[in-house]
Protein backbone atom coordinates (compact mmCIF):
# COMPACT_ATOMS: atom_id res chain seq x y z
CA UNK A 1 0.00 0.00 0.00
CA UNK A 2 1.18 3.54 -0.75
CA UNK A 3 0.45 6.09 1.93
CA UNK A 4 0.70 9.83 1.36
CA UNK A 5 0.54 11.82 4.59
CA UNK A 6 -0.24 15.53 4.59
CA UNK A 7 0.87 18.17 7.05
CA UNK A 8 -0.61 21.69 6.88
CA UNK A 9 0.96 24.95 8.03
CA UNK A 10 -0.56 28.39 7.56
CA UNK A 11 -0.49 31.93 8.86
CA UNK A 12 -3.56 32.55 11.01
CA UNK A 13 -4.84 35.56 12.91
CA UNK A 14 -8.05 36.58 14.58
CA UNK A 15 -9.44 39.55 12.70
CA UNK A 16 -12.77 41.31 12.05
CA UNK A 17 -13.07 44.99 12.88
CA UNK A 18 -15.43 45.59 15.79
CA UNK A 19 -16.72 48.95 17.01
CA UNK A 20 -15.48 49.66 20.54
CA UNK A 21 -17.15 52.91 21.52
CA UNK A 22 -17.35 56.61 20.69
CA UNK A 23 -17.24 60.01 22.39
CA UNK A 24 -18.08 63.50 21.12
CA UNK A 25 -18.01 67.09 22.34
CA UNK A 26 -18.70 70.71 21.45
CA UNK A 27 -16.47 73.61 22.47
CA UNK A 28 -19.02 76.39 22.88
CA UNK A 29 -18.26 79.84 21.46
CA UNK A 30 -14.99 81.78 21.83
CA UNK A 31 -13.07 78.60 22.69
CA UNK A 32 -9.36 77.92 22.25
CA UNK A 33 -9.58 74.12 22.52
CA UNK A 34 -11.92 71.15 22.17
CA UNK A 35 -11.57 68.29 24.68
CA UNK A 36 -12.99 64.87 23.72
CA UNK A 37 -13.14 62.12 26.34
CA UNK A 38 -11.30 58.86 25.66
CA UNK A 39 -13.68 56.23 24.23
CA UNK A 40 -15.02 53.87 26.88
CA UNK A 41 -13.32 50.48 27.13
CA UNK A 42 -10.36 51.51 24.98
CA UNK A 43 -7.48 48.99 25.08
CA UNK A 44 -3.98 48.98 23.65
CA UNK A 45 -4.05 48.23 19.93
CA UNK A 46 -7.46 49.77 19.31
CA UNK A 47 -7.50 52.29 16.49
CA UNK A 48 -9.27 55.63 16.95
CA UNK A 49 -10.48 58.02 14.28
CA UNK A 50 -11.12 61.61 15.36
CA UNK A 51 -13.07 64.11 13.27
CA UNK A 52 -13.42 67.75 14.32
CA UNK A 53 -15.09 70.69 12.62
CA UNK A 54 -14.77 74.44 13.10
CA UNK A 55 -16.70 77.52 12.12
CA UNK A 56 -14.59 79.32 9.55
CA UNK A 57 -11.36 78.11 7.96
CA UNK A 58 -8.87 78.15 10.81
CA UNK A 59 -6.58 75.22 11.56
CA UNK A 60 -7.13 72.65 14.31
CA UNK A 61 -4.13 71.12 16.06
CA UNK A 62 -4.29 67.47 17.15
CA UNK A 63 -2.64 66.19 20.34
CA UNK A 64 0.66 64.32 20.09
CA UNK A 65 0.41 60.85 18.59
CA UNK A 66 -2.38 61.52 16.11
CA UNK A 67 -1.74 61.10 12.36
CA UNK A 68 -3.53 63.38 9.92
CA UNK A 69 -5.82 61.76 7.37
CA UNK A 70 -7.24 64.81 5.60
CA UNK A 71 -8.85 68.23 6.09
CA UNK A 72 -11.37 70.05 3.93
CA UNK A 73 -12.86 73.54 3.75
CA UNK A 74 -16.18 74.73 2.32
CA UNK A 75 -15.85 78.37 1.33
CA UNK A 76 -15.28 80.51 4.43
CA UNK A 77 -18.06 78.74 6.39
CA UNK A 78 -16.58 75.51 7.75
CA UNK A 79 -13.50 73.32 7.94
CA UNK A 80 -13.27 69.62 8.91
CA UNK A 81 -10.21 67.63 10.02
CA UNK A 82 -9.76 63.86 10.48
CA UNK A 83 -6.93 61.93 12.18
CA UNK A 84 -6.22 58.40 13.44
CA UNK A 85 -4.31 57.05 16.41
CA UNK A 86 -3.35 53.56 17.60
CA UNK A 87 -4.06 53.32 21.33
CA UNK A 88 -1.06 52.61 23.51
CA UNK A 89 -0.83 50.85 26.85
CA UNK A 90 -1.58 54.12 28.65
CA UNK A 91 -3.89 56.76 27.22
CA UNK A 92 -4.95 60.11 28.70
CA UNK A 93 -8.49 60.50 30.01
CA UNK A 94 -9.27 62.92 27.19
CA UNK A 95 -7.73 64.40 24.04
CA UNK A 96 -7.48 68.17 23.62
CA UNK A 97 -7.52 69.63 20.11
CA UNK A 98 -6.21 73.16 19.73
CA UNK A 99 -8.44 75.75 18.02
CA UNK A 100 -7.80 79.18 16.55
CA UNK A 101 -8.47 81.95 19.09
CA UNK A 102 -12.15 82.58 19.86
CA UNK A 103 -13.48 79.66 17.83
CA UNK A 104 -16.43 77.31 17.94
CA UNK A 105 -15.98 73.61 17.18
CA UNK A 106 -17.44 70.14 17.57
CA UNK A 107 -16.06 66.68 17.01
CA UNK A 108 -15.94 63.05 18.02
CA UNK A 109 -13.79 59.95 18.26
CA UNK A 110 -14.74 56.43 17.17
CA UNK A 111 -12.63 53.46 18.34
CA UNK A 112 -12.33 49.94 16.88
CA UNK A 113 -10.62 46.66 17.64
CA UNK A 114 -9.37 44.36 14.87
CA UNK A 115 -7.74 47.11 12.79
CA UNK A 116 -4.26 46.56 11.33
CA UNK A 117 -2.16 48.73 13.63
CA UNK A 118 0.87 48.98 11.34
CA UNK A 119 -1.28 50.17 8.42
CA UNK A 120 -4.71 51.30 9.71
CA UNK A 121 -5.78 53.48 6.80
CA UNK A 122 -6.90 51.80 3.58
CA UNK A 123 -8.31 54.76 1.64
CA UNK A 124 -10.20 58.01 2.18
CA UNK A 125 -12.20 60.55 0.18
CA UNK A 126 -13.63 64.02 0.77
CA UNK A 127 -16.59 66.03 -0.49
CA UNK A 128 -18.16 69.38 0.38
CA UNK A 129 -21.03 71.60 -0.62
CA UNK A 130 -22.64 75.00 0.01
CA UNK A 131 -26.07 73.60 0.95
CA UNK A 132 -28.26 70.53 0.97
CA UNK A 133 -27.53 67.06 2.31
CA UNK A 134 -23.97 65.86 2.96
CA UNK A 135 -23.02 63.31 0.30
CA UNK A 136 -19.96 61.31 1.34
CA UNK A 137 -17.91 60.22 -1.68
CA UNK A 138 -17.35 56.69 -2.94
CA UNK A 139 -13.93 55.20 -2.23
CA UNK A 140 -12.41 51.99 -3.60
CA UNK A 141 -11.17 49.65 -0.90
CA UNK A 142 -8.32 47.29 -1.75
CA UNK A 143 -8.91 44.62 0.93
CA UNK A 144 -12.04 42.78 2.12
CA UNK A 145 -13.79 43.59 5.40
CA UNK A 146 -12.76 47.25 5.59
CA UNK A 147 -14.58 49.40 8.13
CA UNK A 148 -15.97 52.44 6.31
CA UNK A 149 -16.56 55.56 8.41
CA UNK A 150 -18.73 58.43 7.15
CA UNK A 151 -17.98 61.63 9.11
CA UNK A 152 -19.93 64.79 8.22
CA UNK A 153 -20.29 68.33 9.51
CA UNK A 154 -22.74 71.19 8.93
CA UNK A 155 -22.20 74.90 9.50
CA UNK A 156 -25.27 75.21 11.72
CA UNK A 157 -26.85 73.77 14.85
CA UNK A 158 -28.57 70.57 13.73
CA UNK A 159 -28.92 66.89 14.40
CA UNK A 160 -28.23 64.52 11.53
CA UNK A 161 -29.89 61.40 10.15
CA UNK A 162 -27.10 58.97 9.16
CA UNK A 163 -26.72 57.55 5.69
CA UNK A 164 -28.81 54.49 4.86
CA UNK A 165 -27.37 51.13 5.93
CA UNK A 166 -24.82 52.74 8.26
CA UNK A 167 -24.81 52.70 12.07
CA UNK A 168 -24.60 56.10 13.73
CA UNK A 169 -21.85 56.37 16.37
CA UNK A 170 -22.28 59.98 17.51
CA UNK A 171 -24.34 63.03 16.59
CA UNK A 172 -23.17 66.31 18.12
CA UNK A 173 -25.17 69.47 17.42
CA UNK A 174 -23.78 72.95 18.02
CA UNK A 175 -22.77 76.13 16.26
CA UNK A 176 -21.06 73.66 13.93
CA UNK A 177 -22.47 70.12 14.02
CA UNK A 178 -20.59 66.85 13.61
CA UNK A 179 -21.90 63.29 13.03
CA UNK A 180 -20.25 59.93 12.29
CA UNK A 181 -21.58 56.53 11.22
CA UNK A 182 -19.95 53.36 9.93
CA UNK A 183 -20.53 50.20 7.91
CA UNK A 184 -18.40 47.14 7.16
CA UNK A 185 -17.50 46.57 3.49
CA UNK A 186 -17.23 42.79 3.07
CA UNK A 187 -15.81 42.73 -0.46
CA UNK A 188 -13.05 45.02 -1.68
CA UNK A 189 -14.08 47.55 -4.31
CA UNK A 190 -16.02 50.77 -4.70
CA UNK A 191 -18.30 51.87 -1.88
CA UNK A 192 -21.53 53.66 -2.70
CA UNK A 193 -21.88 57.37 -2.05
CA UNK A 194 -23.68 57.87 1.25
CA UNK A 195 -26.03 60.72 2.14
CA UNK A 196 -26.43 62.19 5.63
CA UNK A 197 -29.44 64.46 6.13
CA UNK A 198 -29.56 67.47 8.53
CA UNK A 199 -32.74 67.98 10.56
CA UNK A 200 -32.77 71.75 10.24
CA UNK A 201 -32.48 74.03 7.20
CA UNK A 202 -29.46 73.16 5.11
CA UNK A 203 -26.09 74.86 5.32
CA UNK A 204 -22.52 74.42 4.14
CA UNK A 205 -21.32 70.87 4.72
CA UNK A 206 -18.26 68.60 4.52
CA UNK A 207 -18.08 64.79 4.36
CA UNK A 208 -15.14 62.41 4.84
CA UNK A 209 -15.27 58.74 3.84
CA UNK A 210 -12.54 56.83 5.68
CA UNK A 211 -11.87 53.08 5.29
CA UNK A 212 -9.82 51.14 7.85
CA UNK A 213 -7.87 47.92 7.19
CA UNK A 214 -8.75 44.70 8.96
CA UNK A 215 -5.89 42.80 10.63
CA UNK A 216 -4.32 40.48 8.03
CA UNK A 217 -5.99 37.08 8.28
CA UNK A 218 -5.58 33.81 6.46
CA UNK A 219 -7.41 30.58 7.22
CA UNK A 220 -6.52 27.39 5.34
CA UNK A 221 -7.65 23.76 5.39
CA UNK A 222 -5.55 21.00 3.82
CA UNK A 223 -6.01 17.29 3.04
CA UNK A 224 -5.57 14.68 5.74
CA UNK A 225 -3.56 11.47 5.15
CA UNK A 226 -4.39 9.79 1.86
CA UNK A 227 -3.99 6.01 1.43
CA UNK A 228 -3.41 4.70 -2.07
CA UNK A 229 -4.98 1.28 -1.73
CA UNK A 230 -3.89 -0.18 -5.07
CA UNK A 231 -1.24 0.35 -7.73
CA UNK A 232 -0.27 -0.86 -11.20
CA UNK A 233 2.93 -0.91 -13.20
CA UNK A 234 3.06 2.47 -14.98
CA UNK A 235 1.39 5.78 -14.11
CA UNK A 236 -0.97 5.77 -11.14
CA UNK A 237 -3.10 8.83 -10.42
CA UNK A 238 -4.73 9.71 -7.11
CA UNK A 239 -8.11 11.29 -6.64
CA UNK A 240 -8.16 15.08 -6.23
CA UNK A 241 -7.09 16.23 -2.78
CA UNK A 242 -8.87 19.38 -1.61
CA UNK A 243 -7.42 22.48 0.06
CA UNK A 244 -9.28 25.72 0.83
CA UNK A 245 -8.04 29.22 1.62
CA UNK A 246 -9.72 32.41 2.85
CA UNK A 247 -7.45 35.46 2.99
CA UNK A 248 -7.96 39.21 3.21
CA UNK A 249 -4.59 39.86 1.56
CA UNK A 250 -2.92 38.47 -1.56
CA UNK A 251 -1.90 34.87 -0.85
CA UNK A 252 -0.21 31.79 -2.18
CA UNK A 253 0.31 28.08 -1.49
CA UNK A 254 3.52 26.05 -1.64
CA UNK A 255 4.10 22.32 -1.40
CA UNK A 256 7.07 20.11 -0.50
CA UNK A 257 7.96 16.62 0.71
CA UNK A 258 9.96 15.41 3.68
CA UNK A 259 12.42 13.57 1.44
CA UNK A 260 14.94 15.45 -0.69
CA UNK A 261 14.23 13.45 -3.83
CA UNK A 262 10.48 13.04 -3.30
CA UNK A 263 10.76 9.23 -3.46
CA UNK A 264 8.56 7.14 -1.23
CA UNK A 265 10.26 4.91 1.29
CA UNK A 266 9.10 1.85 3.17
CA UNK A 267 7.37 2.79 6.43
CA UNK A 268 7.12 0.49 9.45
CA UNK A 269 4.57 2.62 11.27
CA UNK A 270 7.03 4.78 13.17
CA UNK A 271 10.01 5.33 10.87
CA UNK A 272 11.40 4.78 7.39
CA UNK A 273 13.26 1.56 6.61
CA UNK A 274 15.39 0.34 3.71
CA UNK A 275 13.28 0.04 0.55
CA UNK A 276 12.73 3.09 -1.70
CA UNK A 277 10.62 3.39 -4.84
CA UNK A 278 12.39 4.33 -8.06
CA UNK A 279 10.47 7.46 -9.09
CA UNK A 280 9.44 10.55 -7.12
CA UNK A 281 5.83 11.41 -6.40
CA UNK A 282 4.43 13.92 -8.90
CA UNK A 283 1.77 16.57 -8.34
CA UNK A 284 -0.33 19.03 -10.31
CA UNK A 285 -3.02 21.62 -9.61
CA UNK A 286 -6.13 20.38 -11.40
CA UNK A 287 -8.63 23.07 -10.39
CA UNK A 288 -8.53 26.49 -8.75
CA UNK A 289 -11.83 28.00 -7.69
CA UNK A 290 -13.65 25.57 -9.97
CA UNK A 291 -11.54 26.47 -13.03
CA UNK A 292 -9.45 23.76 -14.71
CA UNK A 293 -5.69 24.21 -14.40
CA UNK A 294 -2.54 22.40 -15.56
CA UNK A 295 -2.54 18.95 -17.15
CA UNK A 296 1.20 18.43 -16.52
CA UNK A 297 2.65 16.79 -13.43
CA UNK A 298 5.85 17.94 -11.72
CA UNK A 299 8.02 15.97 -9.28
CA UNK A 300 7.83 16.86 -5.63
CA UNK A 301 10.92 17.33 -3.47
CA UNK A 302 12.03 18.96 -0.24
CA UNK A 303 12.39 22.26 -2.09
CA UNK A 304 9.05 24.13 -1.82
CA UNK A 305 7.21 24.39 -5.14
CA UNK A 306 4.62 27.08 -5.82
CA UNK A 307 1.09 25.76 -6.27
CA UNK A 308 -0.44 29.25 -6.63
CA UNK A 309 0.91 32.74 -6.02
CA UNK A 310 -0.36 36.32 -5.75
CA UNK A 311 -3.99 35.27 -5.52
CA UNK A 312 -6.62 38.00 -5.10
CA UNK A 313 -7.87 38.56 -1.54
CA UNK A 314 -11.23 36.96 -0.89
CA UNK A 315 -13.68 36.94 2.01
CA UNK A 316 -15.07 33.59 0.80
CA UNK A 317 -13.37 30.20 0.54
CA UNK A 318 -11.26 29.46 -2.55
CA UNK A 319 -10.83 25.73 -3.34
CA UNK A 320 -7.67 24.17 -4.75
CA UNK A 321 -7.71 20.60 -6.15
CA UNK A 322 -4.33 18.84 -6.18
CA UNK A 323 -3.78 15.45 -7.78
CA UNK A 324 -0.82 13.09 -7.40
CA UNK A 325 0.80 10.66 -9.83
CA UNK A 326 3.29 7.87 -9.21
CA UNK A 327 5.13 5.97 -11.94
CA UNK A 328 5.60 2.42 -10.66
CA UNK A 329 8.38 0.39 -12.36
CA UNK A 330 8.93 -3.34 -12.68
CA UNK A 331 11.79 -2.93 -10.22
CA UNK A 332 9.27 -1.50 -7.73
CA UNK A 333 6.97 -4.47 -8.29
CA UNK A 334 9.40 -6.82 -6.59
CA UNK A 335 9.81 -4.47 -3.65
CA UNK A 336 6.24 -3.46 -2.95
CA UNK A 337 4.53 -6.66 -1.88
CA UNK A 338 2.40 -5.99 1.18
CA UNK A 339 4.72 -3.27 2.46
CA UNK A 340 3.60 0.26 3.22
CA UNK A 341 5.41 3.14 1.50
CA UNK A 342 5.08 6.67 2.76
CA UNK A 343 5.89 10.28 1.93
CA UNK A 344 5.04 13.30 4.07
CA UNK A 345 3.68 16.17 1.95
CA UNK A 346 3.54 19.63 3.52
CA UNK A 347 1.29 22.44 2.33
CA UNK A 348 2.13 25.97 3.38
CA UNK A 349 -0.25 28.86 2.75
CA UNK A 350 0.72 32.42 3.58
CA UNK A 351 0.10 36.00 2.59
CA UNK A 352 2.62 37.81 0.45
CA UNK A 353 3.78 35.11 -1.94
Characterization of the model:
There is one protein chain. This protein has 353 residues and is an all-beta fold. It has 2 domains: 2-13 and 217-351, Jelly Rolls (Sandwich), CATH 2.60.120; 18-212, no CATH class. The chain is built from 1 helix and 31 strands. The protein has one helix spanning 330-336; strands at 2-10, 18-26, 31-37, 47-55, 67-74, 78-86, 94-103, 105-113, 121-129, 134-136, 140-141, 146-154, 160-161, 167-172, 177-185, 189-190, 194-198, 205-212, 218-221, 226-228, 234-237, 241-247, 251-257, 263-267, 272-280, 282-288, 291-292, 298-299, 305-311, 314-328, 341-351. Strands 1, 20, 23, 24, 25, 29 and 31 form a 7-stranded mixed β-sheet that branches. Strands 19, 21, 22, 26, 27, 28 and 30 form a 7-stranded antiparallel β-sheet that branches. Strand 24 (263-267) and strand 25 (272-280) form a beta hairpin. The radius of gyration is 29 Å and the shape is elongated. The two termini are 35 Å apart.
Helix content: under 10%
In total, how many domains does the architecture comprise? 2
Instruction: Tell me the overall shape.
Output: elongated
The residue-averaged pLDDT reads 93
Rg, please?
Answer: 29 Å
Count of DSSP-assigned helices: 1
Q: Biggest sheet, in brief?
A: 7 strands, mixed
Distance between the termini: 35 Å
Sequence-ordered SSE layout with sheet pairings:
Elements: E1 2-10, E2 18-26, E3 31-37, E4 47-55, E5 67-74, E6 78-86, E7 94-103, E8 105-113, E9 121-129, E10 134-136, E11 140-141, E12 146-154, E13 160-161, E14 167-172, E15 177-185, E16 189-190, E17 194-198, E18 205-212, E19 218-221, E20 226-228, E21 234-237, E22 241-247, E23 251-257, E24 263-267, E25 272-280, E26 282-288, E27 291-292, E28 298-299, E29 305-311, E30 314-328, H1 330-336, E31 341-351
Amino acid sequence: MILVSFLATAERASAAIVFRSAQSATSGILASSLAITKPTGLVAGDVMVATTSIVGTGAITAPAGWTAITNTTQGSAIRQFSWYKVAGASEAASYTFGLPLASEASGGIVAYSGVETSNPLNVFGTANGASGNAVAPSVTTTYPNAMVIVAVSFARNTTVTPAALTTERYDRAGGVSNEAADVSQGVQGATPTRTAVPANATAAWIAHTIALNEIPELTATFPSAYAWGSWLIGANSSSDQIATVISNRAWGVKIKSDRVDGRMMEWNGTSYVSRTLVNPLNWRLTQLGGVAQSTSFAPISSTPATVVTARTPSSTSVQLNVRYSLDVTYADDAELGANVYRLLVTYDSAQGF
